[in-house]
Write a structure and sequence with these properties.
heterodimer, A: 324 residues, mainly alpha, two-stranded antiparallel sheet, B: mainly alpha, 15 helices, 4 strands, 74% helix
């Protein structure tokens, strides 16, 4: 993003204007929404509502972090939504049957990692298109989740599960801690490890990477595994918030996550973007949904509106990419 | 992808038929799968191999084929249309509401218009805005879904006039009307794909887009035509579906994307573009209809359907890819 501003000897003013124009769409969307909603609805700019938005966005941010890495490799993971549902259901069933919590979470993480590994292996080693692979695993995860519960919800979770939604640590709600930790870990991985450098390079120039004989494919698989693991952890936050596990709770979440990533300025081409943008993108999607709710817009319209925004954001990004 | 690089392999019967070895694998594996399915299912259910059930299978295969034949042509250009299911749902809801209130002509026009509009938007986004097809049509999926939800506001439409339902339930002699529609579309599109500049353009764009562009082909217009065709086919399929089920609601479209893609993959059209065709998709739709019918007959719960479809897609693309790679690998 800053590259355009760094190259060439432009005037100071031209460079800063250019930087503003290159800011991801989410920044503008968030600004416009925040101002508009503060003026239009009396409830938006209140501590309760903003805390509520932050809690609602926590799950989305965690899933979108993983999605960012996948999209940086010029991939996509449509299966994350149903995988979240499946992980939540498995964890819920285990906890209800008296399994210790850490073991239940470990099982969910294992399932997330397994789906990630299957996606990653087929994409990286067999070179199948990511949307086909993850659409198939979307169906498989959804079937498994509904089959395990016969389509019902898992309720009657032990009371301590709710602490993970309602509890606070040093004044901050637990879901926000989880989001912050997920962000920090992803940040370190992406910008300070070989894993991160490979993630950018796979999207930037995979051919060169493969020809150089490095184990790029292994890292490519790990990107999908990481997205699956984050999704499993997000499923726990989701289950704690609902105080129940629904097999289809995640369906459509992958759509919000993709919207957050694209609005955050991560491009489907050449490994451009990053997770700071995704954080803003997820906030923008969360505030948008919250605002549409406050204004009484039905969920049906919300779906169509978010779809339009995705297309507009990608269209703008694609036109911008061609101009520079 | 060097397709048809078969020089390393000695001449096989398949090559004598004009098929490269990897395409021969596709053809033989699909026919084998169909035969095995039929044999196994006729042992598992006494009802399977009856005339009534076979006609029933073809009746189900017809709308599957019609909604995935346009998608096939999209895939031949190395594109994808993830919006087929949602657009089918939207067309079905629009058409059913008009038809059930006594305006069948308007209903048919509304479905075709909606399909055309969605296809046109997809095409413009892919061809001119250069948005990757999977993301443009994924956005369209949710837009069409949302519009269908808003339009229906949770209602279900029942009871379409018998005169309209003919296209889903009628018989023309011994052949169900939807099967007649399928055969007519198959013949027409096969001719279009083999004998017209449009069809050759589709294969050229999918096989080698750079060369297609350099040869002066109007690539953007061809692409828009392809996505519009997909939208129109989906609209026709939506009419057959509501005529058969005699009802429409928004959930109709949610369950159609996986079957449509499964029919294309089972039909052997390569997801990388340029290889395959509409005849393969007819075979794919029939195999899929046999699988779904068989699951129904032996009492598999509907929960499993999405998972089975996912597995079918994965297995067929995985097998094709591995075989093509092994055959096309340069010999040492």
């Amino acid at each position: 993003m800053t590259m355009a501003a760094d190259t060439g000897a432009r005037t100071e003013r031209g460079a800063s204007l250019r930087r503003l124009a290159d800011a991801p769409g989410a920044v503008y969307l968030l600004a416009v929404l925040s101002i508009g909603l503060t003026l239009l609805t009396p409830n938006f700019f209140s501590v309760e509502n903003l805390t509520n938005v932050a809690l609602q966005v926590a799950v989305l941010v965690i899933v979108a972090l993983g999605m960012t890495l996948v999209i940086l490799t010029e991939g996509i993971d449509l299966s994350l939504g149903p995988v979240l549902g499946l992980c939540g259901v498995v964890m819920g069933m285990l906890v209800v049957s008296g399994t210790p919590l850490w073991l239940a979470i470990a099982a969910a993480v294992l399932i997330g990692a397994a789906f990630g590994a299957a996606n990653g292996l087929l994409v990286a080693y067999v070179a199948l298109p990511p949307f086909i692979v993850t659409l198939s695993t979307f169906g498989i995860a959804q079937s498994l989740a509904t089959m395990l519960t016969e389509g019902n919800s898992i309720t009657g979770l032990p009371s301590y599960v709710r602490w993970f939604n309602e509890g606070r640590l040093i004044g901050l709600p637990i879901p926000l801690w989880a989001t912050a930790i997920a962000f920090a870990v992803t940040y370190l991985l992406l910008y300070h490890t070989r894993f991160g450098r490979y993630t950018f390079a796979i999207g930037g120039n995979r051919r060169a990477l493969e020809l150089s004989g490095s184990n790029a494919r292994l890292f490519h698989v790990l990107v999908y595994v990481y997205a699956g693991v984050l999704t499993a952890l997000a499923s726990f936050i989701m289950t704690a918030r609902m105080n129940a596990a629904h097999p289809t709770i995640g369906v459509g979440l992958e759509f919000d996550a993709i919207a957050a990533v694209i609005l955050g300025g991560t491009s489907f081409e050449k490994g451009r973007g990053g997770i700071a943008g995704t954080l803003i993108g997820a906030l923008a999607v969360g505030v948008l949904r919250n605002g549409l709710n406050l204004m009484g817009v039905s969920t049906e319209w919300q779906v169509a509106i978010v779809g339009l925004i995705i297309i507009a954001a990608v269209g703008l990004d694609s036109m911008r990419g061609r101009n520079s | 992808m060097s397709i048809g690089a078969s020089s390393a392999v000695t001449a096989s019967p398949a090559e004598l038929l004009g098929l490269s070895p990897d395409r021969a694998f596709v053809a033989i594996s699909r026919l084998t799968a169909l035969v095995v399915l039929i044999v196994v299912l006729s042992f598992m259910s006494p009802y399977f191999l009856t005339w009534a059930n076979l006609v029933n299978i073809l009746r189900h295969a017809a709308p599957l084929f019609v909604m995935s034949v346009g998608l096939t042509i999209v895939v031949l250009t190395a594109g994808i249309d993830l919006s087929v299911g949602a657009v089918l749902g939207l067309c079905a809801c629009l058409a059913a509401s008009l038809i059930s209130t006594g305006q069948p002509e308007l209903g048919v026009l509304a479905a075709l218009g909606a399909g055309l509009a969605c296809g046109l938007v997809n095409g413009i986004l892919v061809a001119y805005a250069r948005i990757p097809a999977f993301i443009a049509t994924y956005g369209m999926l949710w837009i069409a879904n949302g519009l269908a939800y808003v339009f229906m506001s949770g209602e279900v439409i029942y009871g379409l006039p018998a005169s309209f339902r003919v296209i889903g339930t009628g018989m023309l002699g011994p052949v169900p009307v939807p099967v007649v529609i399928m055969l007519v579309l198959l013949a027409a599109l096969a001719v279009v794909m083999q004998r017209t500049p449009f069809g050759r353009g589709v294969y050229a764009i999918g096989g080698n887009p750079v060369a297609a562009r350099l040869s002066g082909m109007p690539v953007e217009r061809r692409l828009i035509g392809v996505y519009v065709l997909s939208g129109l086919m989906v609209a026709i399929a939506s009419l057959i579906v509501i005529a058969r089920t005699n009802a429409a609601d928004v959930s109709l479209g949610e369950e159609q994307l996986l079957p449509a893609i499964a029919a294309v993959c089972l039909g052997g059209t390569s997801l990388f573009g340029g290889v395959g065709g509409v005849a393969g998709t007819a075979v794919g739709a029939i195999i899929l209809a046999v699988v779904l019918n068989g699951m129904n007959l032996i009492g598999v719960k509907t929960f499993w359907q999405a998972g089975v479809l996912g597995l079918i897609i994965l297995l067929s693309v995985l097998a094709d890819q591995l075989v093509a790679r092994r055959i096309n690998r340069p010999s040492p």
